Amino acid sequence: MSPSLKDKIAQVFDEPGCEHNQTKDEKARKKGCTKQLTPGAAAGGCAFDGAKIALQPIVDVAHLVHGPIACEGNSWDNRHSASSGSQLYRTGFTTDINELDVIYGAEKRLFKAIRQILDRQDPAAVFVYQTCVTGLIGDDIEAVCKRASEKFGKPVIPVNAPGFAGPKNLGNKLGAEALLDHVIGTVEPERMTAYDINIIGEYNLSGELWQVKPLLDALGIRVLSCISGDGRYREIAGAHRARANMMVCSKSMINVATRMQQRWGIPFFEGSFYGISDMSTTLRDIARLLVEQGADPELQKRTEALIAVEEARAWERIRAYRQRLAGKKVLLITGGVKSWSVVAALQEAGLEVVGTSVKKSTRADKEKIKEIMGDDAHMIDDLSPREMYAMLRDARADIMLSGGRSQFVALKARMPWMDINQERHHAFAGYEGMVTMIAEIDKALFNPVWQQVKAPAPWEETETAALPA
């Protein structure tokens, strides 16, 4: 591991936005909260994976993986992060190093690959990702990127997050550090207003950003940049001129918000786009911060008027669902901001959350869960598939909401399941997204297929009837 990478990891761990980290002494703080993994032991995603997940939604840049072809994988439907323009981010680029490159080094191959991408694709920039193999053989991607940028006149950004550096969440932050070091603050926006904000840690999964943006447009609030869903390189490069930042997922990119506050004095808050009440609170917080930064106080009155209209409309649309879903129990297996923001949305629909996972949640996330669910909140650090199956089989939950990797546990238990994580095909953000989420849960719970799969098979009924009395 190069000294620069060690220094960068130490900087990421020295996070002023983490209350838990600030209670330690200086020596313990530098060690961080994440146990470093050995090569091959990064179960659940490595640092490279985390960095690429965090940055790939920037749609008009080429994402070049410097390593074996297996590290690139399939980029086409990565996390269902949608774009309103360029589709370049969905194309996978890799140097595809071989055995000779491992022996002699692959820096020349990387330089040639950058040149080919710039000639054929003409992207706004090229992001180059370090991987375990090229990191171990000592390829200096920062030097190659600097040389390429000088020669070709286009930004070439090194993302030094090889897989052996640690788990996926650390990779999220290392990817964010690449933006802070090489992108944010390098371009001045064409125009600036008193109503400019950045949205950080939002990936526009299934177009969720597009359900929130019309609300902001109606208030005259401009999203200067989204980091990184449906993002554009120049927008992110000029993000330092925003008046306020909204942090959506602090688990992945809190370092962007805190560093921008330190460098440019941009205040931030953490909010949620899930659920009626939380969406309204988020709009109020954005308006409040902008007014504190110099926007017209009339903005807060307009915000309250918009909230009144949208809340009344949303409550009316979910009224019938609330009657059908009242008392139904949900097991929520997710993490991060969704561990508490989705809980609030489910409770608004009349559902009872019997447990929510907190394996990928911050201390602040856990505190918010306690606020929403009370002191008896059932927070699950790590639920094994066997325990999930037992909960569903014993009818302690009527439906499980989780990512795709857990769906087979629910199907084996013959219980309803719905995807709540990034692979889903429906957008659940904003007032409109709340209605969509409740409608999808209703469809899953009351699908007649569950009555059929729980009934005895025809041959089992025949065998039972044939038994002597």
Automatic annotation (TrEMBL):
Pathway: Cofactor biosynthesis; Fe-Mo cofactor biosynthesis
Molecular function in Gene Ontology: nitrogenase activity
All copies of domain Nitrogenase/oxidoreductase component, residue ranges: 46-445
InterPro entries documented for this protein: Nase/OxRdtase_comp1, Nase_comp1_CS, NifE, NifE-like
Any GO BP annotation: protein-containing complex assembly
Gene3D superfamilies: Nitrogenase MoFe cofactor biosynthesis protein NifE, C-terminal, Nitrogenase molybdenum iron protein domain
The UniProt record lists the keyword Calcium: no
Keywords on record: Nitrogen fixation
Cited PANTHER family: NITROGENASE IRON-MOLYBDENUM COFACTOR BIOSYNTHESIS PROTEIN NIFE (PTHR42956:SF1)
Family membership: Belongs to the NifD/NifK/NifE/NifN family.
Function: This protein may play a role in the biosynthesis of the prosthetic group of nitrogenase (FeMo cofactor).
Stated name of the protein: Nitrogenase iron-molybdenum cofactor biosynthesis protein NifE
Species in which this protein is naturally found: Azohydromonas caseinilytica
